[in-house]
Specification:
The chain is α+β, with helices and mostly antiparallel strands. The chain is about 35% helix and about 20% strand. The chain contains 17 helices and 18 strands. The strands form four sheets. Strands 15-12-14-13-17-18-16 form a seven-stranded antiparallel beta sheet, sandwiched between helices. It binds flavin-adenine dinucleotide. The site of flavin-adenine dinucleotide (FAD) has 34 residues, from strand 3, helix 5 and strand 10.
Length: about 450
C-alpha cells in the first residue's frame, strides 16, 4: 500500500477505503462507462470523518474529488489517477422530519427518490424532481443547484434548502443549519455552497423545505404546430389553472419522433406535429381540479392553440407520457451524442432552435439535433448527433453556444459547468463575476484541493 493510502487507512480504518483495483470494476459515471481511475475512494460515515479526511488531504496537498450519485451531465466527477475520491454513499440517512415546521434534515448522500418517498409517508411533499431521482443525491442536488420538472412552481434547489452543514477544504465544519423561512442575520452563508459544484466544500447535511402533499394531479400531452401557440398556451394555463400548473415540458417534433420510433416508447399522439408539451397541474380537489383542467384545455383547443391533446386517466397513462420526456435513451443511440442545457428568453427559443438545427445540418448533412426541456423556466436541452465517428464536440459547442452570446443566454441552466463547459463560462458570466468566484475559491480552498479544475480553470 502506498504511503498516502496507509495514512488514510490509519485515519479511518481499512474498511472505509476502496482500492484502485476495486474502483476499476466500477463505471466512472452515469454517462461514462470507462473504468473509474483514482488512487482510492474513501467512504466516511460522519461529518467528523469527512473533516478528518479533508484536514489530512489539505495538509498533504492531496487533491480530492467528491462523489454523490454520479449523474451530473458536465464531466464533473471524473477523477485523475492521482486523486482521492470522497464518496458520500454511506452518509445517506434521513435524520429528522418535522411535520409542524415543514422541514426535513438529511445527510448529503441520501438518494433523492428515497427522500421524496419517506417525506410522502409523512403526508408532506419535497418537490425537487428529475429523471435521475433514483440515483442522484441530495448533496449532489445542492452542489449543482438542481432544477428539474417542478421549478416553475417551486423553484430550484436554492429555493428548497433552508440550511446546511459543509466541510471546508481544511476540515473546518461550517454549520448553517437554519430551519426558518426568514433569517436575515447577515450574509446567507449556505448559498455559497449551493451551485458551487463541490469546489468550496463538502455538503454533509441539508435542511430541506417541505410543502403540503398535492392530493390531485392532472397530466396531459398536447400538440401544436407553431411556437407562438406553445407560449400562449403556457400563459393561458398559468392564468386559468389557479396557480396549480407545476410542469410545462416542451418537446420539438424531431425529439418526439425519435423517442417514439420503432423500439421506442408508445406514441399517445400522432407523430407529425411540430411541438408537443407535457402539462402537469397539482391541486387538492380531484374532481374539481380534473374538471377545470379539462375545461382549460378545451378552451385552448377552441382558441386554436392546441391541435391535439390526451389527458392521462390513470397513473399508468401519466407514466407513459412522462417516459417520452424523461427516458431519452432511444435518442442517445447511436453514439456519439452531445447533450446541452442552455437558458434563454422564451421569446427567442423558436429562432434559436432553428439556428442550431440549421448549423448542425450545414456542418453534418446527416446530423441530427433534438430539442426539448423545461421551456417554462427558459431552459432547453439539446442533443446534437453528428452521425459520424469523429470527435466533433468543440464544433458542436460553437454551434449551440455562439448564438446565445447575442441573446444574453447561459451555457448552463441547471447542469453546471464541471469540466465540460469551462471554456464557455465567460460567455455567461462577466470578468468581474469570474474574478469574484476565483477570490471565493482561493479564500475557502487556498491549496485548490477540492474538485480542482471544475467550474474555474486552474
Ligand atoms: C436521466 C437524467 C436526468 C437528469 N435531469 C436533470 C434535471 O431535470 N435537472 C437537473 O438539474 N439535473 C438533471 N440531471 C443531472 C443530475 O442528475 C443533477 O446534476 C444532480 O443534481 C447530480 O446529483 P448527483 O448526486 O448525481 O451528483 P454527482 O454527479 O455525483 O456530482 C455532481 C457535482 O456535485 C459534487 N458533489 C456531489 N455530492 C456533493 C456533496 N455532498 N458536497 C459537495 N459537492 C458534491 C460533485 O463533485 C460534482 O461536482 C439529470 C441527469 C440524468 C442522468
Amino acid at each position: 500500500m502506498d504511503s498516502t493510502l496507509a495514512e488514510l487507512a490509519k485515519l479511518l480504518g481499512e474498511d472505509r477505503l476502496v482500492s484502485a483495483a476495486a474502483l476499476a470494476q466500477r463505471s466512472t459515471s452515469y454517462w461514462n462507462s470507462k473504468p473509474m481511475q483514482a488512487k482510492a475512494m474513501l467512504l466516511p460515515y460522519s461529518t467528523e470523518e469527512v473533516a478528518s479526511i479533508l484536514r489530512w488531504c489539505n495538509d498533504n496537498e492531496q487533491t480530492v474529488i467528491i462523489h454523490g450519485g454520479l449523474t451530473n451531465c458536465v464531466s464533473a466527477v471524473e477523477p485523475n489517477s492521482g486523486d482521492i475520491i470522497v464518496s458520500l454513499e454511506k452518509m445517506n440517512s434521513i435524520i429528522e422530519i418535522d411535520r409542524v415546521g415543514g422541514t426535513a434534515v438529511v445527510e448529503g448522500g441520501a438518494i433523492l427518490q428515497t427522500v421524496q418517498e419517506r417525506i410522502a409517508e409523512e403526508g408532506l411533499y419535497f418537490p425537487l424532481d428529475l429523471g435521475a431521482r433514483g440515483s442522484c443525491t441530495i448533496g449532489g442536488n445542492v452542489a449543482t443547484n438542481a432544477g428539474g420538472i417542478n421549478v416553475l412552481r417551486y423553484g430550484m434547489m436554492r429555493n428548497l434548502v433552508l440550511g446546511l452543514e459543509a466541510v471546508l477544504a481544511d476540515g473546518t465544519v461550517v454549520s448553517s443549519m437554519n430551519r426558518m423561512m426568514k433569517n436575515n442575520a447577515g450574509y446567507d452563508v449556505k448559498q455559497l455552497f449551493i451551485g458551487s459544484e463541490g469546489t468550496l466544500g463538502v455538503v454533509t447535511k441539508v435542511v430541506l423545505r417541505l410543502f403540503p402533499q398535492p392530493s390531485s394531479r392532472q397530466t396531459s400531452l398536447v400538440a401544436t404546430d407553431d411556437f407562438e401557440s406553445v407560449i400562449s398556451l403556457l400563459h393561458l394555463l398559468q392564468n386559468d389553472l389557479a396557480g396549480t400548473l407545476s410542469a410545462y415540458e416542451v418537446m420539438w417534433g424531431e425529439y418526439y419522433r425519435a423517442v417514439t420510433k420503432e423500439d421506442g416508447h408508445r406514441a399517445p399522439l400522432p407523430r407529425d406535429y411540430k411541438f408537443y408539451a407535457v402539462v402537469q397541474a397539482d391541486g387538492c380537489e380531484q374532481l374539481a381540479d380534473a374538471e377545470r383542467f379539462e375545461s382549460v384545455l378545451g378552451e385552448a383547443m377552441n382558441a386554436g392553440l392546441l391541435l391535439d391533446a390526451i389527458i392521462a386517466k390513470s397513473d399508468a397513462d401519466s407514466a407513459d407520457i412522462w417516459k417520452i420526456r424523461e427516458n431519452f435513451e432511444p435518442v442517445l443511440l447511436p453514439d456519439p451524442v452531445y447533450l446541452y442545457d442552455v437558458s434563454l428568453p422564451i421569446r427567442d427559443m423558436a429562432t434559436y432552435g432553428e439556428t442550431v438545427m440549421r448549423g448542425v445540418i450545414e456542418q453534418w448533412p446527416d446530423g441530427r439535433c433534438y430539442i426539448m426541456g423545461h421551456m417554462a423556466d427558459g431552459n432547453l436541452h439539446l442533443f446534437v448527433q453528428p452521425y459520424d465517428d469523429g470527435d466533433h464536440h468543440e464544433r458542436a459547442n460553437e454551434i449551440v453556444y455562439e448564438p446565445l452570446r447575442e441573446i444574453g443566454g447561459s451555457v448552463s441552466a441547471e447542469h453546471g459547468i464541471g469540466i465540460e463547459k469551462l471554456a464557455w463560462l465567460p460567455l455567461s458570466r462577466t470578468p468581474t463575476e469570474i474574478s469574484l468566484m476565483k477570490l471565493m475559491k482561493t479564500s475557502l480552498d487556498p491549496k485548490n484541493i477540492l474538485n480542482r479544475g471544475r467550474v474555474l480553470a486552474d
